Amino acid sequence: MEDSALYPLKFYPLFKNKIWGGNKIKNDLGIDYSPLPNCGEMWILSGVYGNESMVENGFLAENNLNEVLEIYNADLIGEANYARFGNEFPILVKIIDANDRLSVQVHPDDAHALQQGLDCGKTEMWYVMDAEKDSIIIDGFSKKLSKETYQKSLDEGKLLENLNVEHPQKGDVFFIPGGRVHALGKGLLIAEIQQTSDTTYRIYDWDRKDENGNGRELHTAQALEVLDFNPVKNAKTNYSYTKNTTSTLAKCPYFTTNLLVFDKPLKKDFASLDSFVAYCCIEGICAIRTMGKIVPMRAGECILVPAIADIVEIFPEKEAKVLEIYIDNLELGTQSSEKDFS
After folding, report:
1. What is the C-alpha separation between 210 and 212, in angstroms, rounded?
2. Contact present, 128 and 188 (Cβ < 8 Å)
3. Is domain 9-226 annotated with CATH 2.60.120.10?
4. Does residue 21 contact residue 39 with C-beta atoms inside 8 Å?
């Protein structure tokens, strides 16, 4: 009888063609089996219904993430997470290639999502994997607006005058809570971590037309109800990192994201964390060893470590950069529950 014990899971990516997409996922990351001419997104860890990640390795291969969750429950995601989210995997991880500007948009927070009959809101964060010289990011309003002044600026085509524009560089981090207006500019390669939601309200799409001469649907009324009109300045997340240690980039009720930049093995103790840990490689090549298994990954790939794993070791080939993602239900907003032996 085949062993039915859990192990670190690796997944096939899901590719999404977008009107604004390009070919950096293929050319820059070397993931060259996407059949899409404008691959704007690669979903590397997803439990979104109808877009579930498929297991690539081990005896669970060809099962999707939600099927694995239904079998292993809290062993996969942790007791507290299973109590919160049940059989819905709580985060979505993507790589985004913005070859052109994305729409100016907003996502609802949890409170507004529930009012609109949705399961949850969409808070997210961006790690800039690469940025061209003149790339921009829109992150929030530049001044406080009322609903009336916002609607007037939208009607008069002057919305862009009220938006906060940032100039991202490689390694920058942006945290985008639900309710905040935002947009990625062209020339960006982004790692995105977010709540499991695909709800987006488009506000403005640069008067763009598809191949049939049609504009994409806008969601003006829905956006008006969820927008946070408070101003945002200096939107970049202030952080620093030291090689071969763990640096926190974001911590919120929906995810904690750490950055690992390392050229020697790292060892982690997650015995008290009570959460899955997802590793997203953003540069280089490395391998995860835990639960008696070794699983390699390279830039653009993701490995999911089950919650029942205690010790995790990470081995780089030369230098690697990895995002480490989990949900810290025990000490949200304070010290992490992990132990770093590095």
Report:
1. 5
2. yes
3. yes
4. yes
Q: Over the stretch 275-302, which tens digit does the pLDDT of each residue have?
A: 999 999 999 999 999 999 999 999 999 9
- DSSP class of 102: P
Name the catalytic one among 84, 101, 180, 202. 202
Distance CA 125, CA 93 (A): 10
Query: Three-state SS across 131-180?
Result: ECCCCCEEEEECCCCCHHHHHHHHHCCCHHHHEEEECCCCCCEEEECCCC
- Residue 319 confidence (pLDDT): 96
CA separation (Å) from 324 to 42, 49, 243, 304, 340?
Answer: 18, 24, 15, 10, 12
Give the three-state DSSP class for 206.
coil
> Taking the domain 246-340, which CATH number applies?
2.60.120.10
For the chain, the residue count is 342
Flag whether pLDDT at 335 surpasses 50.
no
CB-CB contact of 126 with 213 (8 Å):
no
Question: Residues 101-114: what's their mean pLDDT?
Answer: 90
Domains 9-226 and 246-340 agree in fold: yes
Q: 68-99 pLDDT, tens per residue? A: 999 999 999 999 999 999 999 999 999 999 99
Q: Is 311 exposed, middle or buried (0-12, 13-18, 19+ CB in 10 A)?
A: middle
Please tell me the number of Cα atoms within 13 Å of 103 on its side-chain side: 21
Is the overall model pTM greater than 0.90, yes or no?
A: yes
Average pLDDT, the chain: 92
Domain ranges in the chain are 9-226, 246-340
Q: Is 202 a catalytic residue?
A: yes
Which structure tokens are listed for 187?
A: 């020339």
Which of left, alpha, beta for 243 (phi over 0: left; psi -120 to 50: alpha)? beta
Whole-angstrom Cα distance, residue 180 to residue 134?
23
Smallest Cα–Cα separation from 279: which of 318, 246, 240? 246
pLDDT for the residue 339 = 61
Check if the beta carbon of residue 332 is closer than 8 Å to that of residue 80: no
Instruction: Give the pair of three-digit tokens for residue 331.
Output: 């000490």
